[in-house]
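Bench notes, bay 3.
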Amino acid sequence: EGRRVTVRAWCYSIVGVGGNVVPVYLLDTDVPGNDPYDRRLTDYLYGEDQRYRLCQEMVLGVGGVRMLRALGFDQVASYHMNEGHSALLALELFTGEIEHSSNHRERALERVRRKCVFTTHTPVPAGHDQFRLDLAQSVLGSERLHVLSSLGCCDNALNMTRVGLALSHYVNGVTERHGQVSRTMFPGYPISSITNGVHSATWTAPSLQALFDKHIPDWRRNYLSLRYAIGIPADAVRQAHEEAKRRLFDEINRVTNAGFDHHALTIGFARRAAVYKRPTLIFRQPERLRQIAQRHGHLQIVYGGKAHPHDHEGKALIQQILNWQKQLRPAVKIAYMPNYDMRLGRLLTSGVDLWLNTPKPPHEASGTSGMKAAHNGVPSLSVLDGWWLEGYAEGATGWCIGSRDHGADRSDEEDALELYRVLEETILPLYYGRPDRWVEVMRSTIALNASVFNTHRMLEEYFVLAYQEQRHLQQQAGSA
């Protein structure tokens, strides 16, 4: 918009298990001398309107590249863009290369692509930022918009996903299924897949960490060693889980006064409140749910998660759950935990007995909450979508709703009936009737899922498939 915006950086240093320090730079525009509007650009995530959002993305993309250079990072081998939010960094690199390459467009394009990796994280349209062309011209300027148009990124709107696709040599979805879905959404682009993972040490409860430290001493460095959890004594696994469950219940009963019982099967559901995630599917036939609980043993369900500030349907779902909370007691106790954050997320994914996931296929790109639960020996009951297509092993890591071949064409009613059937015929009889067998499922959940769905494995794949290839190409270009 013709204004100069000064950006400063705050450095947050993360120390790894081996003592290596990784600096994380957080950009800040609340700097004296900036326009009052610009000083607020880094105040809110998902805040304000489209203009605010596009200005933020210019600060992140263009400002991010310039900040790295100002800090002395002149020879960055790989710029990894997650979704289109930072895609303008590729435009900044491209305009710089055009000048460096004496306006040789194709040579500049190839040099930028060698440096850029792009990961798309969702098949949901709302997750792919698009901006009106008049707004894009106002914020970015005519020259930048012309360059983006020439790259095929503007079709009635500036599409930030297409910016990342056009200017990256490696593009991936975050599960095998998501890669397939993304190729249908953006035909013509070679979209691969690398399945997400979670940071093991962050998402494992203290009691489980102590258990792993005792029986699998190198688990923090060697993720594959978690497969040896299959040999941990059953009583030790049970005791570690009971401690995690006690910590969660202390918090639930303190905050909500829900009166949760430590001995009752407790189901967890915590993620962003959105319609496609179907958090109320389990209440499709409330009377049947009540009868199941009365016949087989009490049920408890704990929820967590916030709606997007502008998602009124998501907010309505939370209100519906609060209404069921009153109607289904005492057979089914329900608690909705407020102020969901990472601390509460750790308590929930480690302290429940069963993790529930009910997205409408094929909208679940990955889903990581079930991976967090798996690190704590908590099996999943999930629709076969996202990561669960890869992590599901019947009766070993959990149970499924539906089938691999039929998901998108199934109705909510069909999925709800399947959910009730699995709960009534398999899960509740196992939990209350065969507790030793339940602990076996917990152990195999850690061994089969936690040992695979972690960030150590994920980053190894990125290095081999995306980053290492870039360095090789750059070395070739340098020697040429």
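Next record in the batch:
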Amino acid sequence: MNNLKFTYLNTRMIRSITFLVICLSLLGCGNGKNVAKVTSENEISYPAPEQNVRAMPLPAETDETLLNHHATQNSSITKNNVGSMAMSWKYSTPYPVSHAPLVDNTGVYFGDWGGTVYKVEPKTGMLIWKNKIEDPKTDWAWYGLAGTGTLGDGKLFEASVEGTAFALDPSTGKVLWQSRFTDDPEAGSLSKLLYYGGLVYIGVQSVEEPLTAANENFKPDFRGKVIALDANTGAKVWERYLVDSPQNGVSVWTSFALDSVLNTLFFTTGNNYTGKGSELSDAMVAVDAKTGEIKWHKQLTEHDVWTMKDKEGPDYDFGGGAQLFSPIIHGKKVRLVGGAQKSGYYHVFDAQTGKEVWSTVIGYGGIDGGMHGEASLGPNGIFAWSNNKYQHKNLPADFPITVKALDPATGRPKWVINKAQPAAIIPGFLANDVYFVGSLDGTIKAYSADDGKELWTVKNPAPILSWLWVENNSLYLGGGIPGTLGKWPSQSENGMYAYSLVK
């Protein structure tokens, strides 16, 4: 593993950035755009939801961390003032930040690839505390705190690529407990953690895909799983393996949604690595939130076997995690769960039965194509973007993304932006009537949720690697680049950024 070359970088969250770093100075701001109201449906047929789609009680909780909406209606940002936004601060880190910003009333929390957790002041970016909690394996393709923690139970929870979970005191950064959650030497977490009801849920993934390319004698044996830890002690409460030996792969590297009424945890999965395909790869999965027992699963791409060495493909695992929402269908509010796939499709299912309700295409699929992050779900629409056959050997600006607004009940498009902005790898964010999208070259654009009109654009100093997040009058995001990937003008470009309304 000491000889692993970053040329083989293939994480779902960052595999698209290799060529970007080498050619950063050449990147442009995208091709021309075409905003249009949809008047035809030639590209896909949309099956009407059936009458027997189930109406059911809805959870009392509207916590975004459970629904996973990537949206807020509690921000002062609107289409009338977003044009005044400007960078308000940057906190520089020695390592890249793909960890999404976690924001509460006291600070912004995030981690970097070097294994350090930070808390900074939301309005100024001034450091409150930092704590190096992990010694990362920097010869791996991704390492440290490349995934994202969560807040809950008065604690900050983190999980490393190297396979250790931590609970920290949010006030001081002190480690309250730490726990190994895997015995696999190449496994850890790249996912977004979720806290609910005294449990911390962790998706487990592996660095074995790039290892197969770096060492021709390496034999993958990783088995993907989801683990629930006791939030007070770090002890394992349950684990659910998603593949049986000798089959392998099926990582969980995205995010979760949880329905407290149904007592159901939802997540999406990745592809198999070698050998034969298995039934839980490239799937939406629903499990009992307290025990991990599978309630239902729906596979969207069969026999998807892929590594950096053996590229059978098509490598259409899910790039976006599960999302819960409740549109009105046939006069009744129903509970649905959706997920974004690298095939370029957004799939929606009955949350209780797993029956597919609708599915629609956003863009063209591929290894670095398709959807690489969750959609944003608002009261009147689903907002999503997709790469279009982009591959990391190409300039992101040469393969601009498609952005769409969808009807939540049917999946039919409300408006479409073709050639919107350069290729991307992180989900957008909906703040009231403004949809933000960030690109690999640092471009950030804001679109009107009503009609797709471009409202604001800015060029971030670093590639955008983390989720976008809006709180109050500010947009937060993490960025940077692993220095060993190529030439980079300044490591100070790594870090957390804030853009705020200018009064």
